[in-house]
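anyone seen this seq b4? input:
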Amino acid sequence: QVQLVESGGGLVQPGGSLRLSCAASGSAFSIYTMGWYRQPPGKQRELVATITSAGSTNYADSAKGRFTISRDNAKNTVYLQMNSLKPEDTAVYYCNADLRPLGSATVVNYWGKGTLVTVSS
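predicted toks r here
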């Protein structure tokens, strides 16, 4: 059983920074694209950023220039460095990953349970 576990959320003042982490654990697997999504209060879930296994990145316009996604393949972990945070960044942030269990030809998409980021003074 594979799990994605996020950490690093919390309360931060406008202009501050936070670093989110998401570690994949469980049965042996290969990881492909990993990413972060967020769901602001009362709104739909939206893309923040993704990163392929080769390190190619993609960002939502709202994240460009302020957020940086990275990954450590040896640790099966993806990070999201968030700088210059704004109140509108307040949301539950979800980790997402495409994984292929060892011995399987099927790539499965997994979600973490989310971590709350609140940007407020």
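The CA atoms of residues 28 and 51 lie 20 Å apart. The longest strand covers residues 29-39. kinda curious what u guys think
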